[in-house]
């Protein structure tokens, strides 16, 4: 596969856009407003909000500002920019999606593509009242590759700069769409073979006027930088990796800005020109979680449940070359601390104040000191927690963990584990998406609906 596989298409307009008269929030590309949640896991990819005022309790009949049904299937998270909420989904033109079972299991691989036409869609809602303002079909056609029954064709979360939404659909394309639903540019992506045809999931990220995304696959993996104004390639760096599903992270540390890309073969850091800065090995055989930074450290995890290696790494800035740990070592000049068997599989970890919290897929919960890695409390069973895929979020001294059944478990932060209560929402399909938080509102996606939760 070469970069020439990408093809640009001319911009096209949504014919309904002129009827919508939407209020567009004007700000420079790449700017961040404190009230916005414009990427996966929010500002700095941490999942933490210090001044949120959304309610602690909710249900189908309590503190629901609005609820909108969502057709099709998509595990992508909602994002919020100004008074607009954006999500993606893929809708079948006929028939129904095969039901996905909750939990971790074998037997979900699908080797053949379905003979069905799909619509890859971007939806825009008004934050205040939930009105669906527009739906843009970015691509229609038969699926180019199979998918694991528990994956979707809309698993990548879009990202926004406050003026445009950038949408990645793995084997289909990359799109820039303005807030009126007009497609500014389109870049077609060739289908790529993933491990066991599980499909894609890594989301794009923004920094200044560049869009970065990773395509780690079985054919030819790469990290790419795209000009947000034109969709043109800025650079592409080939990667000696096979399939991974981890979203890259832009780490602005005390010494420089780095692009962090976890991987099963090697986790790597690149500069903004795509040049390799440093790397290290030791991940599990499947890498999914999103990295992030806190207390001046970078946290990278990889935790396939079937492996003995399920590491959490905390790294200091300024590394170069190969910084892999020697046998039996738990730290070195650049790795502040390391836990060899502590990482979750699907969820990302989260740091709130001085503690790092770990939500495990099968309903366990643990905590470590964020700066040292010392154990705060070992794995605790979340009562009736069952199965978790979405990453936890934190606000006002509480951690929130959404399971695949639409239940959110509210856990007190601190040195002792304490489950406070559980908030239940209905969901006929699996709830797999991490929510967005904007001040007094929590935007939560279950398998078949989008909720705005707020005091009511």
Automatic annotation (TrEMBL):
Pfam families: PQQ_2. This is Pyrrolo-quinoline quinone repeat domain-containing protein. PANTHER family: CELL SURFACE PROTEIN, OUTER MEMBRANE PROTEIN ASSEMBLY FACTOR BAMB. Transmembrane segments: none annotated. It comes from the Bacteria. Residues 60-238 form the Pyrrolo-quinoline quinone repeat domain. SMART domains: PQQ.
């Amino acid at each position: 596969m070469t970069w020439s596989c990408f093809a640009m298409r001319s911009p096209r307009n949504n014919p309904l856009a002129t009827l919508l008269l939407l209020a567009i929030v004007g700000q420079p590309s790449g700017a961040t407003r404190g009230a916005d949640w414009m990427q996966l896991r929010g500002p700095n990819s941490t999942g933490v909000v210090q001044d949120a005022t959304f309610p602690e309790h909710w249900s189908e009949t309590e503190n629901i500002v609005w609820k909108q049904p969502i057709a099709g299937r998509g595990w992508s998270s909602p994002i919020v920019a100004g008074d607009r909420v954006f999500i993606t989904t893929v809708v079948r033109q006929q028939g129904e999606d095969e039901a996905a079972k909750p939990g971790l299991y074998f037997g979900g691989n699908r080797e053949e593509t379905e003979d069905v036409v799909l619509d890859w869609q971007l939806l825009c809602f008004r934050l205040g009242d939930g009105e669906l303002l527009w739906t843009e079909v970015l691509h229609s056609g038969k699926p180019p590759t199979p998918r694991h029954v528990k994956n979707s064709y809309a698993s990548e979360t879009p990202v926004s700069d406050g003026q445009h939404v950038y949408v990645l659909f793995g084997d289909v394309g990359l799109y820039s769409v303005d807030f009126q639903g007009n497609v500014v540019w389109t870049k077609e992506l060739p289908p790529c073979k993933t491990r066991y045809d599980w499909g894609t999931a890594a989301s794009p990220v923004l920094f200044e006027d560049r869009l970065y995304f990773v395509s780690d696959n079985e054919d030819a993996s790469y990290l790419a930088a795209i000009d947000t104004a034109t969709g043109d390639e800025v650079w592409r760096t080939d990667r000696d990796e096979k399939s991974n599903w981890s979203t890259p992270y832009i780490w602005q540390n005390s010494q420089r800005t780095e692009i962090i890309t976890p991987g099963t073969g090697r986790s790597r850091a690149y500069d903004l020109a795509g040049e390799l800065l440093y790397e290290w090995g030791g991940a599990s055989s499947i890498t999914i979680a999103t990295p992030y930074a806190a207390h001046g450290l970078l946290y990278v995890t990889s935790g396939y449940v079937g492996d003995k290696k399920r590491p959490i790494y905390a790294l200091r800035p300024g590394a170069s070359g190969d910084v892999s740990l020697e046998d039996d070592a738990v730290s070195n000049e650049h790795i502040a601390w390391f836990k060899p068997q502590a990482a979750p599989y699907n969820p990302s970890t989260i740091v709130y104040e001085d503690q790092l919290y770990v939500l495990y897929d099968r309903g366990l919960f643990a905590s470590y000191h964020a700066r040292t890695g010392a154990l705060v409390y070992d794995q605790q069973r979340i009562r009736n927690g069952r199965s978790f895929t979405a990453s936890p979020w934190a606000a006002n001294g509480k951690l929130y963990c959404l399971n695949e059944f639409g239940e959110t478990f509210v856990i007190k932060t601190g040195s002792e584990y304490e489950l406070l209560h559980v908030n239940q929402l209905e969901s006929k399909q699996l709830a797999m998406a991490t929510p967005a938080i904007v001040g007094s509102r929590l935007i939560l996606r279950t398998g078949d609906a989008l909720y705005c939760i707020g005091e009511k």
